[in-house]
Every structure is written in C-alpha cells, then in structure tokens.
Amino acid sequence: MFALKLSVVIVNYNVKYYLWQCLHSVFVAGQGIDMEVFVVDNNSTDGSVPFLRRHFPQVHYIENKENVGFSRANNQAIRLSKGEYVLLLNPDTLVLSNTFRDCIHWLDDTPEAGAVGVAMYGADGRFALESRRGLPVPWTSLCKMTGLTKLFPKSRLFGRYYMQFLDETQISRIEVISGAFNMLRRTALDEVGLLDEDFFMYGEDVDLSYRLLKGGWHNYYVPTPILHYKGESTQRSSYRYVYIFYDAMLIFINKHFRQRYHFFTYLIQLAVHLRALMDYFKRFVMRLKLRFAPEPPVEKQIDMADFCLYDITPSDDNQSCFDRLIQDTIQRCEKGDQRPLGIRYSEQNLLVLPCAVLDGTAK
Question: How far is it, in rounded angstroms, from Cα 238 to Cα 345?
C-alpha cells in the first residue's frame, strides 16, 4: 500500500551545522528501514543547501525563495512523501540508533495511535517538559499562566499542561506531541488534514494534536530518548519571537474554543496580551540598560570548562557515537553534573555547542 515505511521531514533555517549532525544521526537510525528524507530550506543565508548537498546527496531538498514558515514548509514535503509514517523532526535534534524502530514498532502494534512523541532531553541532560503536554484548554491555560502548574506540577487538576503526574519511563497516552519530534500515521494525517498554515512557527503542533484527538485517534508518548538543543533556529529574545509565539496561542484559542468557552476565551486572550506586553517591556528595559551603560558590555568568552566535550567521528556505520554521548549526558545530569555537552568533530575542525558553532575549516 505504501512505497516506503518512513518519510522524515526537516525544516531548516540557518542552522546548517546542527542539521548536518542531525542528518548523520537520522541515517544511522534509518538503517534497515525503507526511508526517505526531505529537507525544506526556508531561504537560509548561511549556505545550508550547497553544504548539506555535498554531504548528503541522497536527501530530497526543497529550496524556498522566502521564509514560508514551519507549517507550510512541512506541508510542501509531506505532499511529496511516500512513507506509511511521516516524521516531523527539528534540525537541532539528535536521535539514537533505535529511536525510529521504537516508534515504528509502537505504531505498527497500536492501530488506534495517530501519532507518537518521544522523551526529549536538553543539551544539559535535563528532561524537557514539552515531551508530554496537555491541551491548552481554558482551565489548563489559566493554571499555566497563573503559576498553579509550577506550584503543583504533579497535580492532575493544576498540572495538566506538562502532565508531570505521568511516569517519564512509561509509555503513556498524552494530548499534545511536540513538533520537534512527531511521528504521524499517514492514514490519520490524511483524515484530519495537514498542518494549519495560519500558524507560522508555533502552535501548529498543538493544533494538529487536537485535530487528531477530535478525529478519534490517540497520541502517545514513547520514552525513547533524543537530544533537542531547543530553539537554535529562533531568536527567543526578539520582539518577533514574542509576537509570533503569543499570536499562535490566540489563533489556537479562537479557532477551537471561542464558541464553547466564550467567557474563558476572553480571559485567556487578556492573559496572553498581558504576558506578551510584560515580556516585551522586560526586553525593552534590558535594551535601555545596555544603551545607557557607562561602559559597553564586554562580550563573554566561551569557556570550554563550562561544557562536557565529546570527540566523535560520525559515519553511517557508527551506531554508537551519538547513542553514547546522549546516554552519558542524561546520566551525568542524574548525578548532578548539568554541564551542557559539546561535540567536537576533529576531521571537520568543528565544535558544536548549544550556544554556538565554532567553525574551523568545515566546508
């Protein structure tokens, strides 16, 4: 029925080295799987496509002439893909050699599963709360914005936003799957439709997860770990980030809850606007302080002692290199060492850190 088992779709915007190492891990994880990989480039200015094409000619590249956003870019590749399952994957991730198989096996064995997410860990080894989320219905959103979720993280009443009452080590039914790693069943996607292109960068994962649930499908969390640098392709301190993030929340609320929760919707809208205004004011004050500082701020130098460095040589037949560093990072964090990892590729004279990429002679 399907030409391939898995189609991997990655949207890129000016993060060529993160994507370079991501693709190495993808092709290791894809060994023995009938798989295709799409990279949709949203008009990057860092030479991403020529660089990646030299290293990964087997990838299908789609080059946009403008930044069309995350949803539209993913949809471009999904329409061309042929896999039974479609994986939406962020470029700033690393997957383990068994990640794809774990998710595929669960989808094969669970016909009611519409999509599967995984256990995401940051570069410091900490578990990412975004790995399991509840729908931001008015009550859940109010608990999140008023701080009740943070005060009572394990509560099923107040802490549903991050669902921390669930065991991290067990497969669980959840409501929202992160767009950083979302393996979807093709038939479910065909039924509920592709990503809503009204969402430019954020919120599309929440919207798609909700439509899957409304369509009678179940969303699952499978505790196979991946590493997610989280946000390397966005500038989270910018006004544009604040605007796009909170605008996405409003689009979702108005689309799905305005009729049913009329009063609560207005409260959420007010809270979103206030939160966005507070974030913008905070950043404005910070810029003023920098502008009128008596002396220009000294740029902080990167201290290698702040990182735990790994030397690896990625290759299609090296199944242990990324597995080892991800597992070591998680275990170090559990022991209290939360130094972020740094990955040094000696052959390419390249050092990839969570905060920067130090490029020597990589071409």
Answer: 31
DSSP category for residue 130: G
147 burial via Cβ count (<10 Å: 0-12, 13-18, 19+): exposed
* Angle subtended at Cα 280 by Cα 275 and Cα 286, rounded to the nearest 5 degrees: 130
- Give residue 339's pLDDT band: very low, low, confident or very high (50, 70, 90): very high
Residues 134, 140, 141, 144, CA torsion sign:
negative
Query: Got the DSSP string for 324-346?
Result: HHHHHHHHHHHTT--PPEEEEEG
Run of H or E including 36: strand 35-41
DSSP code string of 44-100: -SS-HHHHHHHH-TTSEEEE-SS---HHHHHHHHHHH--EEEEEEE-TTEEE-TTHH
Structure tokens at 232: 């390397």
pLDDT at position 297 over 60? no
Tell me the pLDDT of the chain averaged across its residues: 88
pLDDT digits (tens, 9 = 90+) for 51-107: 999 999 999 999 999 999 999 999 999 999 999 999 999 999 999 999 999 999 999
What is the β-pairing status of strands 172-174 and 218-228? antiparallel
Helix (H, G, I), strand (E, B) or coil at 244: helix
In one letter, which amino acid is 60?
H
Encode pLDDT of 188-234 as tens digits.
Answer: 999 999 999 888 778 899 999 999 999 999 999 999 999 999 765 45
Question: Residue 194 is encoded by which pair of tokens?
Answer: 């592709």
Model pTM above 0.85: yes
C-alpha–C-alpha distance, residues 77 and 87, integer Å: 11
Element (H, E) at 27: helix 16-29
